[in-house]
Design a protein that fits this description.
The protein is an alpha/beta fold. The chain contains ten helices and 14 strands. The strands form four sheets. It has a seven-stranded parallel beta sheet with strand order 3-2-1-4-5-6-11, with helices on both faces. It has a three-stranded mixed beta sheet with strand order 12-9-14. A two-stranded parallel sheet has the order 7-10. Bound molecules: nicotinamide-adenine-dinucleotide (NAD).
């Protein structure tokens, strides 16, 4: 019996693979490497290069590797890109997920864990936002994920398939042991970009909006350490295998940090200034978004272990500095 990790060469998926391997799971990764990197996948996970949309390949894998559960990370993840190219997002995040789930049902896979997002809440009416609050995505990205959530709900009623949807807030940090981290060139995550700016790899960081109703006027987000996030998936897998009912959970710490607080932490971790300048608010950005996390704390066997912005930034910066060394080493 093995688990399939789609998108296992990506940022979060590769941390998931590590966690599963450490738990003694047999792991198969399916990734087309469109943004992921082969070297992010730790052994002895099996790597299959291919697309989630390739139903023949997926069906063959599910049967030949005796897959019992799928952790579905593969997807397109850049919100502004989803506004200019919605077809890509509905195709890769929604249509391709449907063909994966259809193959899973055919092959008798019992459990699916799906990477959803806080973007399903859109302009949340209150924070911390909880799972039963209205969902109203304002980007094709958020809508493509919400549609997939809905498909899972319907499929699980009609078929012998149980699922957990995890709605991630802002994922950050890197493997505490420094083996892997966020390696995607061009990634736009705030903490990564702030670390790059401190290292001189980016000329400056743009801070969008300074007149929000937050402690210091800049946007406030709930940053979750990637290692805590992947442990939430392992807890969800144990829950489903123990017969737990299909359900949806927010994944966050329930409190936020502002952009200026992040910059301050990066400056302290790196001992370097982070060059930044204020820019106007971006349309569609919300002032503050934090996760109501009472449900996941109560129902899954999961507790945050790294909910400290100092630790998140220290790990993110350590990884970024290592990446920068590799690049300059390769160039010299
Ligand atoms: N990073 C965040 O803050 C965040 C927040 C909310 C939700 N998520 C979700 O988590 C998941 C993983 O995000 P990430 O940050 O690790 O992104 P990522 O781009 O690093 O990883 C995605 C991986 O999926 C692969 N992939 C994409 N389309 C594929 C396809 N059709 N077939 C096979 N492989 C494919 C890519 O090569 C990559 O390795 C995504 O579904 C994303 O929407 C991420």
């Amino acid at each position: 019996m093995a688990v399939l990790v789609t998108g296992g060469a990506g940022y979060i998926g590769s941390h998931m693979v590590l966690d599963l391997l450490e738990a003694g799971e047999q792991v198969v990764v399916l990734d087309n490497l469109v943004t992921g990197l082969r070297e992010s996948i730790q052994s002895p996970a099996e790597f299959v290069r291919g697309d989630v949309a390739d139903t023949a390949l997926v069906s063959e894998l599910l049967r030949s590797r005796n897959i019992n559960a799928i952790l579905h990370f593969a997807g397109s993840v850049v919100v502004p890109e989803s506004q200019t190219n919605p077809v890509k997002y509905y195709r890769n995040n929604t249509a391709n997920s449907l063909s994966l789930f259809a193959a899973a049902i055919e092959a008798g896979v019992k459990h699916v864990i799906f990477s959803s997002t806080a973007a399903v809440y859109g302009m949340a009416e209150r924070i911390p936002v909880v799972e039963t609050d209205p969902v109203a995505p304002i980007s094709p990205y958020g809508m493509s994920k919400l549609m997939t959530e809905q498909m899972l709900r319907d499929l699980s009623v009609a078929h012998d398939l149980s699922y957990v949807v995890l709605r991630y807030f802002n994922v950050a940090g890197a493997d505490p042991e420094g083996r892997i981290g966020q390696s995607t060139p061009g990634a736009t995550h705030l903490i990564k970009v702030a670390c790059q700016a401190a290292l001189g790899l980016k000329p400056e960081l743009k801070v969008f909006g300074q007149d929000y109703n937050t402690r210091d006027g800049t946007g406030e987000r709930d940053f979750i350490h990637v290692a805590d996030l992947v442990r939430a998936h392992s807890a969800a897998l144990r829950y489903l295998r123990a017969g737990g009912e299909s359900d949806t959970f927010n994944c966050g710490y329930g409190r936020g940090s502002t952009v200026l607080e992040v910059i301050d932490h990066v400056e302290r971790a790196s001992n370097r200034p982070v060059p930044y300048r204020f820019a106007p608010r971006r349309p569609g950005d919300i002032g503050a978004l934090t996760a109501g996390n009472a449900k996941i704390l109560e129902r899954l066997d999961w507790k945050p272990e790294l909910d400290d912005l100092n630790v998140i930034v220290k790990h993110a910066y350590g990884w970024e500095a290592r990446l920068a060394e590799k690049v300059s080493g390769a160039g010299s």
